[in-house]
Amino acid sequence: MLKPPTPSQTELEMVTITSLVPSDHLLRKIDAALDFTFIRDRVAPLYCPDNGRPALDPVVLFKTLFIGYLFGIRSERQLMREVEVNVAYRWFLGLRLTDKVADASTLSQNRRRRFRDSTVYQDIFDEIVLQAVRAGLVDGMVLYTDSTHLKANANKNKYDLAMAAKSRADYLDALDQAIDADRAAHGKGPLKAKEREPEVKETKISRTDPDAGYMVRDGKPKGFFYLDHRTVDSRHAIITDSFVTPGNVHDSIPYLARLDRQRQRFDLDVRYVGLDAGYSTAGIAKGLEDRGIEGVIGYSRPTHRQGYLRKRDFKYDREVDVYRCPEGQELRYATTNREGYREYKSDPALCRTCPLLASCTSSANHTKVVTRHVWQDAKDHIHENRQTPWGKKVYARRKETVERSFADAKQLHGHRYARLRGLAKVTEQCLLAAAAQNIKKIATILARWRGTDGLGPNRKRFIHALNCLISELLAAFRLFHPAAI
Hints:
Layout: H1 26-33, H2 38-43, H3 58-70, H4 76-85, H5 87-93, H6 104-114, H7 120-134, E1 142-151, E2 159-165, H8 172-185, E3 200-206, E4 213-215, E5 223-233, E6 239-246, H9 255-265, E7 272-275, H10 282-290, E8 294-297, E9 315-317, E10 322-324, E11 330-336, E12 341-345, H11 348-351, H12 357-360, E13 369-373, H13 376-387, H14 389-396, H15 402-412, H16 423-450, H17 457-480
Parallel strand pairs: 1-7, 7-8
Antiparallel strand pairs: 1-5, 2-3, 4-5, 5-6, 9-10, 10-11, 11-12, 12-13
Helix pairs in contact: 1-16, 3-4, 3-16, 4-5, 4-6, 7-16, 10-13
């Protein structure tokens, strides 16, 4: 029998807010796994201790922001509406069912005023990584780095043309020393002292967001973008670094400085890194060698002029320091230029009568020049690593770590678009998104280890025993195969 519904919204019920939140809810796992009280001490200097109106608890403020990133709520106004009606959100923030929810402007004004020009977002991200380190979720042995683009909040058709300096690599001082040493080893005098001026080129500057960079990359959309350069640890794919640049900055430029920061900040003993072909530069190869880190970098196909011999057709003889062409002629060392390349030149008298001249060089004086970077040995070593069994295994893990991390960020955490304008505000977004992903992963893993993820008791015991066995096997395996992951 179909009966009419009985109104029940006005009934008085005795409940606790805790009883209304499911035991396996994500926010319960987060609350049990992470301690957010450090936020209050970190931001205390930004508040007045004895004057003004009572402020919203900063722990509640940042936990509210994390809810927005965890559940893909882009609008702060919508976020506060969700907090008002969602019991789990109220429980996580420590609010009662009848407590008034803060206004959305409270979040935005704290961002715009109190936390502007501070390092609070970076500090909070770092502390969450440190909690993961202390929980045994990060070992730092293998790190993977890549970048992804976020579309800037700017019209790609509204821009001005201006001359701007290109970004400067952080290893140029070491390169200058290597050039002088190489020239001295070949009996050449040092180059005339000249300060390296940043290369200046005409570029597009957005009228709405001047900090964004106009990105032009093969296979990527053109327009104004930001780049999130992210590093992920191989053990459980915990994000250990997030660094934002304009979209026209090459991936390799900030890499070594950010790698050093992670090693120092989190005391990581980094032994191996996995990178894609965009990081295949002699400067990075030498930087990894100097730090005692083995790198595995994707293959970058060299440029080639159609109809001419390839550089690999000229064989380098290390013992006598010469290149040999397919016809057997030796190309001898001539000089080391300011860009760090040795120049090996042929004998024009022999080249004039060579049957391969037309496919070898278009030089007016019939001289073939082959260049070799002063750090080419380090780059060759990186390429050899890629062909080893352990190198293939390390590189294959990229898609399961850093690439998966970006995929989750874009699909679940609003990482396709920059929510705000300006480099500082996009940095804030990327750090909060990365911190939210770490929070989610830390809580999920620890809940599984503790058996509080809603599984049955028998299955809990089985998974715990299996995790212990796998950890012991991996520890033993790494003693004999340190590159294994």
